[in-house]
# Entry
Amino acid sequence: EQGILRYRGIPIEELAEKSTFVETAYLIIYGHLPDRNELKNFSDLLTEHQNIHEDMKYHFEGFPSTSHPMAILSAMINASGCFDLTLMKGGCSSQFDSHVAQLISQVRTIAAFSYRKSHGLPIIYPKKAYKYTANFLHMLFSQPYEDYELKPEVVRALDLIFLLHADHEQNCSTATVRMVASSQANLYASCAAGVCALWGPLHGGANQAVVEMLVDIHKSGDDGSKFITAAKDKNSGKKLMGFGHRVYKNYDPRAKIIKKACDEVLGSLDINDPLLEIAKKLEEAALRDSYFVERKLYPNVDFYSGIIMRALGIPVEMFTVIFAIGRMPGWIANYKEIADDTKSRISRPRQVYMGEPLNTYVPMSKRK
Ligand code: ACO
# Structure
């Protein structure tokens, strides 16, 4: 009701201002802010594991260029488990720290490679000298003959997006990861399942759906008012994407931070995106409209994040992939909680069957 989000007790606003994605990932997975040594070791492990096995490159060739990068991401996370047999075992082994770093680091490499492949571009390898988010941008946008120019405000904006997505209690994908982990499936298999759950437009896929909605509104010449009317009509099949949340019945605190960052990034890159104006108008109109007020529907994290990502040059089909990279620490921490718990039991929801309790097999010739 109050719109509060904290990671391990630290307000999201404080982390957004002072921390980085890598430090926050450590906080979420290991339960405390790392000291200097712990952070260095964690960063070194991420760098050590940044390359994927060279043979994995050939797997990318098998996907049609029209593949959605979320499909490639989930398949390749699972496939990478095959290249390191120590990953196959469920639970938290002595190599768990290395597996964690491998997953966080390589999910970014896989994501960048899938983008390059689907656009017919040559793969760009990570650079040891670059930090986490800068390295991702380098792999996405550099060319073999020319390095991408890393602007600090762009790197910071993307790092902030990763950080704001890092964990969010028992949402659909995190609950999925826990469900799979409860069978003692390995970390990679569990997180690959999380990617699939995140993909849908009612969950992480909403960031893509928001921008597609804004583009449609812009193309139609509507200032947003016609769309608001349609979103209130249950028969229209339309929803105001990026609005509403199962838990927040108030402004999502991440949306507040992202909205401010959106203004700052677009300002400093001197970008005038008409979609930002439409989004602001939609928000204003919705927050005044009794339909949205009575149902406590406010902007969620996805409402403005897509506009920032567009400004950074990230294609719309990669938006949910960015969410998945950011959410990895939360999934891993939830996996660890299950794996560390010696009393953990397999998740097994009960079913209340509503059909015939007993029936006989009817031969085909006698069926109506
Ligand atoms: N636009 C229009 N009406 C909406 C919206 C919306 N975005 N969201 C909810 N409503 C309406 C519902 O139709 C329902 O109306 P009713 O009471 O007249 O039947 C009422 O508000 C309550 O909505 P529920 O669907 O019960 O809310 P629920 O908690 O099940 O769903 C959800 C939450 C999925 C986020 C929903 O608000 C939604 O679909 N939003 C748009 C998609 C979106 O932005 N998803 C991202 C969520 S954040 C995240 O996953 C990272």
